[in-house]
Amino acid sequence: MAPESAKHVYGPVPSRRLGLSLGVDIVPLKTCSLNCIYCQLGRTTALTVDRRAYTPVEAVTADVATALHERPTPDFITISGSGEPTLHSRLGELIDRIRTVTHLPVAIITNGSLLWLAEVRADCAKADVVLPSLDAGDQDTFARVNRPHPEVTFTRVVSGLKAFRREYDGQIWLEVFLVRGVNDTEEAVRAIARVVADVKPDRVQLNTAVRPTAEAGLEPVSAERLAELAGLFEPPGEVIADYHRPHVAARESGRVEEILEMLTRRPATVEDLASGLGLRREDVTRWVMELKRAGRIGTEVRSGKRYYFPSPGAR
């Protein structure tokens, strides 16, 4: 099993956006300000805008230092993970501490929903690249797609993105996530594009539901359609959706079987599985949910932790 000191860090893993990325996970699983219908980690279980020190920054920094010593050198240190990282009240301090152990660039992957708060903008401004999201051009679509905490409104999100652009000299790579039949009409995308033009990001990156989503039945926008819609944006959008993922079923199946094999030895949490198999916590969560939906594993909460174990027929 991986050392305990690595529990806040995963990878490095290949990223279509950031090359080889060392992930840093600083908030509990599915603690978020949004409950997006397309989230690959499932529904949000702790919908909040409460900024707290969810993890000790000293321990996280030590994890980063250990990983950089023991693992391949990444292109980016990426603060993201299994919840909304800007909910961490010591995010800015963490970035400062990371810079004491490495000169590698720091990226933050965020839903952008809290940038209307000055302290969040100040924290994010310490990163080299910030990758926020914008999936709607109006309040109704925002509510339908992102299902925000009541204090997070479309107006606040847009004002936060614009304010951050005015204050921040680094790179902003804005992700737009489109779902077929939900926010992919030309009218809906033009509305998003008008807001994006005001935000003035350095890049616009289009994504869609090629992975399992929080809500069943959501369909991806085709690659050809995304390429057409990319031209509506300024700057023109880049299609980052990984359409090849559905064609790597054998590799995905192998990972699922590895998880099931480990569970046959003893019950384990998502964190146990991720560290024991050297996998990203997001990916383990997705595969565990697939196994659970298929009835191959069960779950039980013990001492406040959720453990998974094979169902009788899967042993």
Q: What is the element layout, followed by pairings?
A:
Layout: E1 9-15, E2 19-25, E3 31-32, E4 46-47, H1 57-70, E5 76-80, H2 91-98, E6 106-109, H3 118-124, E7 129-131, H4 139-146, H5 154-167, E8 171-178, H6 186-199, E9 203-208, H7 223-230, E10 237-239, H8 249-265, H9 270-277, H10 281-293, E11 297-302, E12 305-310
Q: Concise description?
A:
This protein has 315 residues and is α/β, with parallel strands linked by helices. It has helices spanning 57-70, 91-98, 118-124, 139-146, 154-167, 186-199, 223-230, 249-265, 270-277, 281-293, and strands at residues 9-15, 19-25, 31-32, 46-47, 76-80, 106-109, 129-131, 171-178, 203-208, 237-239, 297-302, 305-310.
Structural description of this entry:
The protein has 315 residues and is of the alpha/beta class. The protein folds into two domains: 4-243, Alpha-Beta Barrel (TIM Barrel), CATH 3.20.20.70; 249-314, Winged helix-like DNA-binding domain superfamily/Winged helix DNA-binding domain (Arc Repressor Mutant, subunit A), CATH 1.10.10.10. It contains ten helices and twelve strands. It has helices at residues 57-70, 91-98, 118-124, 139-146, 154-167, 186-199, 223-230, 249-265, 270-277, 281-293; strands at residues 9-15, 19-25, 31-32, 46-47, 76-80, 106-109, 129-131, 171-178, 203-208, 237-239, 297-302, 305-310. An eight-stranded mixed beta sheet has the order 1-2-5-6-7-8-9-10. Helix 7 links the parallel strand 9 (203-208) and strand 10 (237-239). Helix 2 (91-98) packs parallel to helix 3. The longest helix has 17 residues, at 249-265. The chain is globular and about 55 Å long. The two termini are 22 Å apart.
